[in-house]
Design goal:
By secondary structure, this protein is an alpha/beta fold. The protein has helices at residues 25-37, 68-71, 89-95, 97-108, 114-120; strands spanning 15-19, 53-57, 73-77, 84-88, 122-124, 138-139. The chain has a four-stranded parallel sheet with strand order 5-2-1-6. Strands 3-4 form a two-stranded antiparallel sheet. It is globular and about 55 Å long.
C-alpha cells in the first residue's frame, strides 16, 4: 500500500462557524485546534499545513468548569523588573472575550513555524455577528 502525503499546493480549505454559547472552553479549544491543523481530514500530514478556517461566535458566553472564573489568571511580563501583571479570566470576559479562546487554542497548536499560519485562520468574535458571510461557512456541531 502506498502512503500519500499532502502537498501545500493541493490543499483545499473550507470555512466552519462554531457557536461557543455554553460550550466548555477546553473541549471547544481541542475541536478548534484539530480543525486548524487539519486532523479531521483523511489527507492529514504533520509537516504540511492542511487545516481549515474556523470562525467562533459568542466568545463572551463560553463556559469554564470549577472555580476557574475567579481563580484563573493570565500573566503578562514586559521584561522590566517588577512589572508582572496578572489579569483574571472574569476581567478578560468583560473586556476582551476573544482573547480567552485565542489563548487557549494557541496553547494546543504545535510549537513550530506552521502554528502562526494556523492561528491566522482562527477568527473569534464576542457577539453573534461575523463579517465572513461571503465565504459561506458551514455550521460545525460541537
Amino acid at each position: 500500500m502506498k502512503t500519500t502525503l499532502a502537498k501545500k499546493e493541493e490543499v483545499t480549505r473550507k470555512w466552519y462557524v462554531v457557536d461557543a454559547t455554553d460550550q466548555i472552553l477546553g473541549r471547544l479549544s481541542v475541536r478548534i485546534s484539530n480543525i486548524l491543523r487539519g486532523r479531521n481530514k483523511a489527507t492529514f500530514t504533520p509537516h504540511v499545513d492542511t487545516g481549515d478556517f474556523v470562525i467562533v461566535i459568542n466568545a463572551d458566553k463560553i463556559r469554564v468548569t470549577g472555580k476557574k472564573e475567579d481563580q484563573k489568571e493570565y500573566m503578562f511580563y514586559s521584561g522590566y523588573m517588577g512589572n508582572e501583571k496578572y489579569i483574571k479570566l472574569s476581567e478578560f470576559r468583560s473586556r476582551k472575550p476573544d482573547f480567552i479562546i485565542h489563548h487557549s487554542v494557541k496553547g494546543m497548536l504545535p510549537k513550530n513555524k506552521l502554528a502562526s499560519g494556523m492561528l491566522k485562520r482562527l477568527k473569534v468574535y464576542g457577539g453573534s455577528e461575523h463579517p465572513h458571510a461571503a465565504q459561506e461557512p458551514e455550521e460545525l456541531k460541537v
